[in-house]
C-alpha cells in the first residue's frame, strides 16, 4: 500500500435540510480495496458522485488521483473507471462490439481497439462469449462485461456502486475474486459500495460503515472487531460425540476452571462463555472426563456483529435518511 490516491476532507452534501453526506474524511491508498458499506439512503452514491465530479459538494473537498474532483472533473474521469449499479449495453451488438464501442468513446486508437477489447474479455473470463449478443447475457455476465467497460481505459482507480446486486452467490464469489486478483496484480485501487456486508468483507482491505451520511467507523474487519468486542467474552462451542446427561455433575467442575461465566448445553454442544481464551483447558477437561470431542468452534465477530453494534445506536437517525418509498430492513445485513 502506497501514497493516498483518494482523499476526502470534510466532504458534505446537503439536499435542502437533509445532510446526505456529513463531514466525511477518508483516505484510500493506492492498491487498496475499500468497502463503503451502509444501508439504502446512507449517502454512498452521493459520495461517489462527488468523487467523480458529477455533483458538487456543499462543503469540503474530494481529491482523486491528485485532482480536485469538483474543479477538475475531466482529469479525474480519465483516471477513474466508474461502474454504476445497473450497467446498460446495446442489446443488438455482441459483447466485443459493445466493448469496442466503449473503447472508441474513451479515445483508444482504432488499431488497438479490437485487441484491447479481446484482452479484456479474457481477463474477465468471457473469452468464449465475445461474439454473443449482450441480450443473451445473464446478470452476472453483464456485471463482468461492465467491469471490462471500466477497465478498458486502464484506470488507476475503479469505483463500483453495488456491484453484486442481483448476482447469484457463486457469481458474487467469482466476481469479487476477480476484483481482488485485478487489484493485487495491477495495483488497482478499488472502492466498492455495498449493503451486502457478508459478500464484500472477504475482499476488502478496509471497510467504512456509513449510516445517515456519517462514517461511523473505518478499518479492517479484524481491527473493527478487536476494538468493538474487547470487552466481550470468549465463546467456545464444544461438540461431543454424545450429549451429556441432563443433570450433569461435571458442570460444576467446569465452572471451577476459572474465568467461566456461563455454560449452555444444547444436545451434543456445550457452549462456554469465558473471560479469557481457555480453549486448550476446555478441551483437556472434556478429554479427561472421558468424553470424545468432535469439534471446537470459537466465536469470531464479523461485519454483521460490528454493524449491528453500531446499528443499534443509529436506527432512528438512519430512518430519517431513508430514500422515499424504500424500507430498510435489518435482514439486508444477514446472509
Ligand atoms: N438528487 C437528490 N435530491 C434530493 N435528495 C437526494 C438526492 N439524491 C439523494 N438524495 C437523498 O440523499 C440520501 C442519500 O442517498 P444516496 O443515494 O447517496 O444513498 P445510498 O447510500 O447510495 O443508497 P442506495 O444504497 O439506496 O443507493 C437519501 O436520503 C436520498 O433520498
From TrEMBL:
Give the species: Dyadobacter luteus
Q: Which Pfam families does the UniProt record give?
A: ABC_tran
Which SMART domains does the entry link to?
A: AAA
PANTHER family linked = ABC TRANSPORTER, ATP-BINDING PROTEIN (PTHR43335:SF4)
**Domain ABC transporter residue range list:** 6-237
Q: Which UniProt keywords apply?
A: ATP-binding, Nucleotide-binding, Transport
Q: What family does the entry list?
A: Belongs to the ABC transporter superfamily.
Spell out the protein name for this chain.
ABC transporter ATP-binding protein
- Gene Ontology molecular function terms on file: ATP binding; ATP hydrolysis activity
The record's annotation in InterPro entries points to:
AAA+_ATPase, ABC_transporter-like_ATP-bd, P-loop_NTPase
